[in-house]
Every structure is written in structure tokens, then in C-alpha cells.
């Protein structure tokens, strides 16, 4: 027997056992749970690392983790986005339960800055970041509502209270005088198409409607954070797209460990009118009408007879007829996981938002997938972020500029309160040329749909430890269709008019014919980008982060529209059914179609240099070329420079301020940005168009080109200071900015009037200057074991001024009977954009006629632009309860009450039209004309209790089906303090003239509702 054959395996086995026991003795397993310190809710996807090593794990859906660590390990570092990291000692325990606190130290945050991220302490430009925990709560239709009032320097003004209404967003004032005032939106690295929605109305009511918000396709609950780049040093990486600022939207990525986390949220919302017009009831209306006739010169008997003629016997509150309590619902479901280089988040949502005006609302279905995968030892990373949505909007017959008869809201405000809704035979009561609001709701139908896909596909490769390469393909495609119908039973004396296309009238009115209009809009954008990133630290003092890249983006838009009239199957009786089918008509004609395409290509670079974590320098340059310009000026270069000094890193500053400050930094920046978004795609070219409107081909010259156009430019200068106290309870940021816009693109009359078209694009002489101060303050007032109170405050001042303009420019069309061609705003030197221009009203004389100063000549009387706005948030927590109260204020601006100018005049009573009590009982003569004047110009200053949110997080058992559960109740627009007599001073109805934008008009606006929302969020 060979003994060695027996001994050798035994020895090997013995050694293996010894080695295993030794290895086990050198490691241990630590378990624990990571929760939010305020409400105890679990934090899924938190990172748990052995301090000083790469050994780590992530928490699961219930916040728990399990990690095997060397027995010599003493400390675990636990971190989670938006929270301060914590170290826990494990030397004497195998259990580590950790409560993380939402980060109050801004220096620890990581900020998205465009083509990368930076730590807040390294950011040299003016950048503001709002995360999910600070978003406005409740019924949110589009992303900008999340940050309204929350960020210094950013003013969000909704056009109306309609679900999905467009908003005007100004970052550090407004500079453009011919449109394109909106910032650039970038979602997960893809710059968005600005359009994609249809805003006109062809069903038969005069005027049009403002296009819907282009961001309504995005589900707000998918958003992780919103970053605002406010100055050139921050936004210059986007060059020609950044003149109005840049808003970077980052969506949520996969978290939650191998098993993943399921989350479901549901909410129900009730919305009502927050304020209504104080209209006269039937009895008071008749008394006021009698007095108005007497004041107008009629004898008491004649006045009484006139009142008998307008008394229809009913007592109808027409505001009740058109308004409703809107009930809405929202559902969100998501699954998120992250494990071994794979990260996935899938989400879906359904929104059904009713508007407080009947027949209005928004229904949205969205699906989103964010997927990333690391390969080849994590050197290669593949990412895909995709959103697909379908949004359907329902519209009432409202418009921005209806005539004296009014669109739906105007008709309801002035309709005789003694009028009944129906005649005795069941038909709608329709007197003369007035419009029955109930009939308008029943006989006008207007709906659209918007299908939109946004995708960002990228691959990045770590070439070396310090150098990486990334390629990005971005796709943004939108297709929308809007179809409207007007019932043939609408009376010709109140509705209709023919449709005119290129000088030819069609349709023969609505009565007996009916009408349908269909519009189609398709927009496409393709983005291709390549860039290299170099990131290296030398000798532990010199840090360089550099980016160099190339970008190409194309934009394409197609529009067509047509209308039909004359039903194949007539509809006459009150019980006949009007089948709303676009193909049910006998006659059709086309509107003039539209098509344009333009391209933008760029090279860009950015260098961040840091010395000893003390001195920070950023140099950015981007060169853009746009197909919109002629060959001489197609390209432009936009540089920017910024410097930051962390003064407290100096020993001598530490001696002065180190006792009570943990950070003190000073910043300075200068740069140039460009703009060409408002410019037509073929502005440099002479164009003619041939089309067929139903009567044969027609050719016309449509544009005089200007090959010498240059880029509009904005030069920004600023400086700022940041400091945080030693205990990190107080942090303050203060900024000064000065922005000058030159070479302004403007659609001006052609010189000498010799061109075949009336206007062409030029670079206008002069400049627009915005300057002011911003301040942001965060204070942890109380930080107890059970109760805490955090305060956040921001404020902004804006001084807007025009210099060097060759001639004043009028805008702001005023609507109303006898006001054709009237305007109320002027852009002129020495004043701000949107300065009001009109006669000064000095009250009524003894006969009730208006008196005006300076011979009724126009005077400059204030601006529609606010000079100050601020937001204040108080966050309270007690145990598992959380309460957030947000107020915002805007001052220093005026609103033109065009609703009162058009509708609320004493003379309306003589014509059997209703007015407010103030007007009905006022001293005005019934024959006094409603001329444009400061009579209708009011201060818009207000303070609003904008958002209140109360939530409770349940303490669930470990074996519960649900890993987390919370309930909440929120209120929006709960209180408004203002001297403005209209519904709401925060309004911006579009009243442009020849494309020159207006500001601050209130004309039969869709009221902003008061909203109460209750909801539930669960994780499992």
C-alpha cells in the first residue's frame, strides 16, 4: 500500500478546513436598516460602504442591508442622495441601524451642470437646484409647477388656470422683444423642441387660444431634480440656446438592490373657483338697468318700459352654469432596481384632470423606462432613457381676443341674469346677438391629442482611468391633432362668420351648415453628440476636469389644416343628434400648410481647474452654426469665464471667520450667450409658396430675406458670495447680476415699403438690460429629537431697462367694442419692456363722464414686469408627521384689466348686459365710452398661500406586505392677499401685436382654482 496516496488527500482536506475557519475568523456579517430621520421611512438603494475600501452593498426595498466585512473593519459609511452621509461604528456590534438626515450642507450636493456633474463646492457659476423633497405638491400638470416660487431669479407666470396651460418662465428678467423668452429645457441631456402643441381654434368663435404647455408630456413624479443655469458661465456650454437660461431636468434612475422596489401612488383632487366676479343678480340688475336708462336721459316711464323689455323672468347665475367642482385623479406605478452594474427604473402614470370650466380637462398616459448596464469591468456603460406619452386635452370655446359678444367666459359674465337657459320647447334661449353660455358648452366641441416620444441613448467608455468618451443619440418626436366642431343649430345672429383663406371666403356661416376644423402638427428633433471627459488630480492639489465635444441637432415641423361645412345629414330639432365626425360634411377646404426645417451644429469645450480645493476657475467656449442665418454670419462663438475663491481655506481667513463659519466663498463671472430660437428657419432667404386652397394653385411671395442677419447676443456679468455657519444650521447665497442683450432679432417693416411683403427680419439697434440681486437663505431653526423646523427663503430684485432703441414699438392689443387697433404697451428707451402706455384717468366729472390728464395723451405709467418676487417655505416635522407651508409674493408690477374694459361699463346695462355691483352702482354715465386708460390699470402686488402639504409615514412591521406607507393632504392656492379687483393678478393672457409679445393682460382669463388633494404612497 502506498501510504502517501492516503496521507496527501487528508493533509489537503485538513489544510482546506483550517483555511476556511481562518477566513471565517477574518470576516463577519453586519446587518442593519437605513431610514429617514424625520419620519422613519426606509431609504431604498442607500449605499453602505466599509470606510476606506470598495466593499459595499445597497439597501433593499425595506431599507435593510446585509454586508460581509473584514473583522478588522471598524466603520461603515452610509450615504443616500439628498441626505447627509453618516459613519457608524461596527467594531463592537454586528448590527448597524442608521437614520439619515436630509442634507442641509449644500457643499455635499452633486449638481448636474450640463455634460456632467459637479459638487456644489466646485461650482463657479450661478446654479440653483431643487430636489424632489422641495417640489411643490398637489395637482401638478407640468414640471415648471414643481419649482414655481422655489428658486431665486426664476419667475414662473402661468397664462391661465386651465389644466396644462402654458407658463411664461423668466430667468433673471426678460430680454427679448420679439418672442423666444423661454429658457432651454434639457431632459436627461436632450434639449427639447419648444413647440409640439396647437393653439388655434377654428370652430367659429373669434380669436384663438394659447398653445398648451410643451412640457405636459412629462410625468412630474418621474423627476429627481431640476437644476437652473442662470448666468453665462453656467449656461455657456449650451451656447446659442442659453440666452434665456437653461433648465436641466433629471429623471429618477434605478435603485433598490437586486429584488427591486415597487412603488404605487394615488391621489384624488377637488378643485373649485378661488374667486368669482361680483356680478349683479336679476333683481339688482333690473334696478340698475332702469337707473342707467334714466341717467342716460330716458324718462322714468321709458326707463321702466325698457326694463320690462329686458326682463325675461328668470334668475340665472351664469357663472354657476359654466363653472363646476372639478374632480381629478392620478395614479403612478414604478419598479426600480440596481444590482451589479445593472440599473432599471420602469414607471407608468395616468392623470385625469378636470378643469373648473365645464368641457375642459387634461387626460394623460405616460410610460418611462430608464435603463443602464455596465460591461467589461465597468469600463463600458450603456444607457437608455425613454418616455412615451399620450395627452388628450378638452377645450371650451374660450379665446384670447373674442369680440364684444365674448367667448364662453365673456358671454357668461355679461349675459342677462333674467335670461332662462332654455325656451319652453327645449331649445336654447338665444336673444339677438348675445350668446347663451349653456348653448356654447353644448354646441361647441374641441379636443386634441398629443403623442410624444423622447429618447436618450448613450454609450460611454472609460478609455483610461482619467479619460472617457461618450456618444449620445437623442430623439424627440411629437404628433398632435386638434379637431373642433360647431353645431349647425347655433344662431347666425350670434355665431359664425365665414372662414377666409387667402382672400376667399368659405363656409356661409355656421347656422344650418355646422363646421369642423382639423389641424395637424408634427415636430421632430434628432440630436447626435460626441464628447470626451478628462478628470485628474495632480499632486493632491491640482485638479482638472475638461470636456470637449461636438453636437448636431436638426428640427423639422409640418403643419396642415382643413375645415368642412354642410352636413350630409341635417340637424335641426333640439333632440337631433349631431354626430361629430370629420367625414360627415359635404364641403371641405384647406388652410395654408406650413413646413420648416433647420439645423444646428456646435463644438464646445469646458475646463474646470481647481488648486488646493481653494481656487476654482472655469473657462467655457461654444461655437454654434445655424442654418437660419446667411453664410456670412452663420457661425458665432460664445465664451464664458468664472472664478471662485473658497476664502475659508486661507489660514488668515480661518483665524477671522473660522470660529463661526464652515464655508465662505466668493464668485465672479462673465460670458456671452446667443439666441436664434425666435428666428424663422429661412429668415435669410427670399421665399414664395404655391398651395391649393380648393380653387386651384396659388403662388405668393411670402418673405423678404435678409442675408446679413447676425446672432442675438446676451453678455452677462455677476458676482456672488456663499457662506455656511459652523453648525451648518444657516446657509446663505447672495448674487448680483447684470445682463445686456444686443443685436436683437426683430420682425420689422421692410425699408421703403418696396418689398412684396410687409415685414422682414433684422438686427435691431439698442439693448435691453436686466440687473438685480438674488438671495437664498436656508435655516434649520429647530433640530430636536422629535420636532424640527426648517426655513427656506429666496428673493429676487429685477431692474429692466431699454437703451438705444431707434423708435418706440407698440404691443398689447386691447379687446372690446370700439377698441379695434387699440394698444396699451410700448417698448421705448429709458423704460422697461412691457411699459404701460395710455391716458391717465382722473375720475368722473359731475355728469359721469371720464376725465383724463394731459389732454388724454398717452403717458408711460408703470410696467407689467415685477421688480421683486420672493418665496418662503416652512417645513415642520414631529415624529412621523411632516408639514410644509409655502408662500410666495410678487410686487412692483401692474395688470391691465381688459375684462373690465371690454365688459364692465355702465353702458352695458342699457344693452341688457350684466356688470359687477361696483360698476352698476357707480357714478359712470351710461354713454361714457370705455377708452383705454389707467382706469383699468391696477397694481398687481400679491401674497399667496400657494402650497400646504401635510403627510404621515406609518411605522410598519418588518413582515408587513408593504415596506413603506404614507398618506398626505395638500392644498394649492389656498389664500390670496391682493388689491387687484379681478380674479387673479398672476396672469399673462397673450395680447401680442405682429408677434411682439405682451405681458400682464387679464382678459376673460380661465380662473386659477383652489385645489385640495389627498393621496397615498406605498412601497412593496
Automatic annotation (TrEMBL):
Membrane-spanning ranges: none
InterPro entries xrefs: Beta-barrel_TonB, Beta-barrel_TonB_sf, CarboxyPept-like_regulatory, Plug_dom, Plug_dom_sf, TonB-dep_OMP_SusC/RagA, TonB-dep_OMP_SusC/RagA_CS, TonB-dep_rcpt-like
Sequence ranges assigned to domain TonB-dependent receptor plug in this UniProt record: 121-246
Protein name (database record): TonB-dependent receptor
Subcellular location: Cell outer membrane
Signal peptide: 1-25
Membrane topology term: Multi-pass membrane protein
SUPFAM superfamilies: Carboxypeptidase regulatory domain-like, Porins
Ion transport as UniProt keyword: no
Keywords from the UniProt entry: Cell outer membrane, Membrane, Receptor, Signal, TonB box, Transmembrane, Transmembrane beta strand, Transport
Keyword NADP assigned: no
GO CC field: cell outer membrane
Residues annotated as domain TonB-dependent receptor-like beta-barrel: 489-887
NCBIfam families on file: OMP_RagA_SusC, SusC_RagA_signa
Family classification: Belongs to the TonB-dependent receptor family.
Highest classification ranks of the organism: Bacteria, Pseudomonadati, Bacteroidota, Chitinophagia, Chitinophagales
Predominant subcellular localization, coarse grouping: membrane
Amino acid at each position: 500500500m502506498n501510504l502517501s496516496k492516503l496521507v496527501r488527500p487528508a493533509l489537503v482536506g485538513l489544510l482546506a478546513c483550517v483555511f476556511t475557519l481562518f477566513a471565517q475568523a477574518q470576516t463577519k456579517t453586519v446587518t442593519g436598516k437605513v431610514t429617514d430621520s424625520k419620519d422613519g421611512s426606509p431609504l431604498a438603494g442607500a449605499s453602505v460602504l466599509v470606510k476606506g475600501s470598495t466593499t459595499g452593498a445597497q439597501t433593499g426595498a425595506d431599507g435593510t442591508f446585509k454586508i460581509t466585512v473584514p473583522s478588522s473593519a471598524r466603520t461603515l459609511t452610509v450615504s443616500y442622495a439628498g441626505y447627509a452621509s453618516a459613519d457608524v461604528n461596527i467594531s463592537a456590534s454586528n448590527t448597524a441601524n442608521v437614520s439619515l438626515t436630509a442634507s442641509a450642507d449644500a457643499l455635499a450636493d452633486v449638481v448636474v451642470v450640463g455634460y456632467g456633474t459637479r459638487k456644489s463646492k466646485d461650482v463657479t457659476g450661478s446654479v440653483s437646484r431643487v430636489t424632489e423633497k422641495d417640489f411643490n405638491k398637489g395637482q401638478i400638470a407640468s414640471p415648471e409647477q414643481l419649482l414655481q416660487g422655489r428658486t431665486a431669479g426664476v419667475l414662473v407666470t402661468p397664462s391661465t388656470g386651465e389644466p396644462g396651460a402654458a407658463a411664461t418662465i423668466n430667468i433673471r428678467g426678460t430680454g427679448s422683444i420679439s418672442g423666444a423668452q423661454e429658457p432651454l429645457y434639457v431632459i436627461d441631456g436632450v434639449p427639447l423642441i419648444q413647440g409640439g402643441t396647437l393653439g388655434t381654434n377654428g370652430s367659429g368663435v373669434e380669436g384663438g387660444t394659447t398653445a398648451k404647455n410643451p412640457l405636459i408630456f412629462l410625468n412630474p413624479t418621474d423627476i429627481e431634480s431640476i437644476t437652473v443655469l442662470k448666468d453665462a458661465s453656467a449656461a455657456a456650454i449650451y451656447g446659442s440656446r442659453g440666452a434665456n437660461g437653461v433648465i436641466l431636468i433629471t429623471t429618477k434612475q434605478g435603485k433598490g438592490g437586486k429584488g427591486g422596489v415597487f412603488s404605487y401612488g394615488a391621489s384624488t383632487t377637488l378643485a373649485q373657483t378661488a374667486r368669482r366676479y361680483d356680478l349683479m343678480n336679476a333683481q339688482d340688475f333690473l334696478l340698475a338697468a332702469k337707473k342707467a336708462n334714466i341717467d342716460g336721459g330716458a324718462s322714468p316711464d321709458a326707463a321702466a318700459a325698457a326694463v320690462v323689455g329686458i326682463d325675461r323672468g328668470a334668475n340665472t347665475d351664469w357663472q354657476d352654469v359654466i363653472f363646476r367642482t372639478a374632480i381629478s385623479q392620478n395614479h403612478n406605478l414604478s419598479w426600480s432596481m440596481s444590482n451589479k452594474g445593472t440599473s432599471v427604473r420602469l414607471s407608468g402614470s395616468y392623470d385625469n384632470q378636470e378643469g373648473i370650466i365645464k368641457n375642459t380637462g387634461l387626460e394623460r398616459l405616460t410610460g418611462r423606462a430608464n435603463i443602464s448596464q455596465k460591461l467589461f469591468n465597468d469600463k463600458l456603460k450603456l444607457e437608455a432613457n425613454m418616455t412615451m406619452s399620450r395627452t388628450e386635452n378638452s377645450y371650451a370655446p374660450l379665446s384670447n381676443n373674442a369680440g364684444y359678444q365674448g367667448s364662453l367666459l365673456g358671454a357668461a359674465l355679461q349675459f342677462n341674469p333674467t335670461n332662462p337657459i332654455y325656451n319652453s320647447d327645449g331649445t336654447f334661449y338665444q336673444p339677438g346677438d348675445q350668446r347663451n353660455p349653456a348653448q356654447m358648452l353644448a354646441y361647441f366641441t374641441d379636443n386634441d391629442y398629443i403623442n410624444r416620444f423622447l429618447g436618450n441613448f448613450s454609450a460611454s467608455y472609460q478609455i483610461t482611468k482619467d479619460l472617457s468618451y461618450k456618444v449620445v443619440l437623442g430623439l424627440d418626436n411629437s404628433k398632435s391633432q386638434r379637431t373642433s366642431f360647431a353645431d349647425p343649430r347655433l344662431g347666425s345672429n350670434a355665431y359664425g362668420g365665414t372662414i377666409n383663406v387667402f382672400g376667399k371666403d368659405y363656409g356661409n356661416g355656421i347656422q344650418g351648415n355646422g363646421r369642423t376644423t382639423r389641424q395637424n402638427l408634427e415636430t421632430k428633433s434628432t440630436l447626435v453628440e460626441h464628447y470626451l471627459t478628462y478628470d485628474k488630480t495632480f499632486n493632491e492639489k491640482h485638479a482638472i476636469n475638461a470636456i470637449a465635444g461636438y453636437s448636431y441637432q436638426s428640427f423639422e415641423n409640418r403643419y396642415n389644416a382643413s375645415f368642412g361645412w354642410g352636413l350630409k345629414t341635417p340637424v335641426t330639432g333640439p333632440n337631433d343628434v349631431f354626430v361629430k365626425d370629420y367625414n360627415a360634411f359635404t364641403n371641405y377646404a384647406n388652410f395654408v400648410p406650413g413646413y420648416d426645417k433647420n439645423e444646428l451644429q456646435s463644438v464646445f469645450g469646458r475646463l474646470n481647474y481647481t488648486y488646493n480645493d481653494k481656487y476654482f476657475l472655469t473657462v467655457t467656449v461654444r461655437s454654434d452654426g445655424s442654418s437660419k442665418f446667411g453664410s456670412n454670419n452663420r457661425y458665432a462663438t460664445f465664451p464664458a469665464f468664472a472664478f471662485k475663491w473658497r476664502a475659508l481655506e486661507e489660514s488668515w481667513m480661518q483665524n477671522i471667520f473660522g470660529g463661526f463659519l464652515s464655508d465662505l466663498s466668493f464668485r465672479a463671472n462673465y460670458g456671452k450667450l446667443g439666441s436664434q430660437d425666435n428666428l424663422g428657419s429661412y429668415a435669410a432667404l427670399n421665399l414664395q409658396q404655391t398651395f391649393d386652397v380648393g380653387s386651384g394653385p396659388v403662388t405668393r411671395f411670402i418673405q423678404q430675406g435678409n442675408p446679413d442677419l447676425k446672432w442675438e447676443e446676451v453678455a452677462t456679468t455677476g458676482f456672488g458670495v456663499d457662506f455656511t455657519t459652523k453648525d451648518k444650521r444657516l446657509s446663505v447665497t447672495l448674487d448680483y447680476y447684470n445682463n445686456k442683450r444686443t443685436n436683437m432679432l426683430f420682425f420689422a417693416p421692410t425699408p421703403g415699403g418696396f418689398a412684396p411683403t410687409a415685414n422682414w427680419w433684422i438686427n435691431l439697434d439698442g439693448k435691453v438690460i436686466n440687473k438685480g440681486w438674488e438671495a437664498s437663505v436656508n435655516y434649520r431653526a429647530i433640530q430636536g429629537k422629535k420636532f424640527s423646523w426648517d426655513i427656506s427663503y429666496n428673493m429676487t430684485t429685477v431692474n429692466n431697462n431699454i437703451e438705444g432703441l431707434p423708435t418706440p414699438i407698440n404691443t398689447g392689443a386691447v379687446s372690446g367694442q370700439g377698441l379695434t387697433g387699440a394698444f396699451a404697451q410700448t417698448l421705448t428707451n429709458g423704460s422697461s419692456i412691457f411699459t404701460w402706455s395710455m391716458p391717465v384717468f382722473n375720475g368722473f366729472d359731475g355728469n359721469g363722464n371720464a376725465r383724463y390728464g394731459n389732454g388724454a395723451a398717452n403717458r408711460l405709467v408703470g410696467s407689467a414686469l415685477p421688480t421683486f418676487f420672493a418665496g418662503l417655505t416652512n417645513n415642520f416635522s414631529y415624529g412621523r408627521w411632516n408639514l410644509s407651508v409655502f408662500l410666495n409674493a410678487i410686487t412692483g408690477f401692474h395688470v391691465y384689466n381688459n375684462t373690465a374694459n371690454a365688459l364692465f361699463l355702465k353702458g352695458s346695462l342699457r344693452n341688457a348686459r350684466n356688470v359687477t355691483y361696483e360698476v352698476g352702482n357707480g357714478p359712470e354715465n351710461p354713454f361714457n365710452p370705455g377708452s383705454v386708460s389707467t382706469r383699468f390699470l391696477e397694481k398687481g402686488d400679491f401674497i399667496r398661500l400657494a402650497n400646504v402639504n401635510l403627510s404621515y409615514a406609518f411605522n410598519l412591521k418588518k413582515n408587513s406586505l408593504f415596506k413603506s406607507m404614507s398618506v398626505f393632504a395638500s392644498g394649492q392656492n389656498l389664500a390670496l392677499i391682493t388689491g387687484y379687483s379681478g380674479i387673479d393678478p398672476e396672469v399673462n393672457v397673450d395680447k401680442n401685436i405682429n408677434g411682439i409679445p405682451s405681458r400682464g393682460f387679464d382678459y376673460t382669463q380661465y380662473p386659477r382654482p383652489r385645489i385640495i388633494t389627498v393621496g397615498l404612497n406605498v412601497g412593496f
